[in-house]
Amino acid sequence: MTSAGPVSNPVFLEKFRRVFKSASLFGLEQIAALAVYLLLEEILRARRRPFLGFASGSLPTGSRPILRYAFYAAAVLAVFIVRFVHGRKMRTIETTDDPDLILNGLSRMSFFALLLAEIPAVLGLILFLIAGYNRDFYVFLFVSLVLNFMYFPRMKTWEDILQKKPAACPR
Predict the structure, then answer these.
(1) Residue 26: its H or E element
(2) pLDDT given at position 100
(3) Nearest Cα to 81, choosing from 29, 130, 123, 126?
(4) Which of 56, 76, 142, 162 could in theory staple to 52 by disulfide, Cβ–Cβ 3.0 to 4.6 A?
């Protein structure tokens, strides 16, 4: 981090590094959780071949497509929520002048966005467990992976926000 702006205090820089490291580790844990979901799905598919879901026999006729659409709609809703809330919170954070409040806001926003980014993968795993849709699980997992990449904490972004530098791409 450069010494320009209100964040040149060594005590604050140490706090910044600690909070950023915590947010980054949480992001890595979220990505590891996605890998665990994939491993669980693959083991279950291999051991119970052909896996048609635990509830596939009890689903009413014709409800499987409705179930799929409902899960896709919920995943799309999760994507919109994370995009909307993240953008709104970032605008609030960027208007604050207190570096400690900005850092706390960035930390909370990172944790929140990363948690929401995992929702599509969880929905895909649930859909797979219910109805055995492994290809849909892969789609949901990919969406979560992309969201994790988008909202993974980046030191340069945090520094720019703390130093009140305008974003390269306006929101």
Answers:
(1) helix 10-47
(2) 86
(3) 123
(4) 56
**16-25, 49-58, 154-163: which has the minimum mean pLDDT?**
49-58
Produce one character per residue of 132-153: b if its CB has 16 or more CB atoms within 10 Å, e if not.
Answer: bbbebbeebbebbbebbeebbb
Q: Where are the domains of the chain?
A: 7-162
Q: Is 167 exposed, middle or buried (0-12, 13-18, 19+ CB in 10 A)?
A: exposed
Residues 6+ apart with CB under 8 A from 40: 125
19 Cβ contact partners less than 8 Å away, ≥ 6 residues apart:
103, 104, 106, 107
- Give, to the nearest 10 degrees, the angle between helix 134-151 and helix 10-47: 170
pTM of the model: 0.85
Cβ–Cβ under 8 Å, residues 120 and 79: yes
Length of the chain counted residue by residue: 171
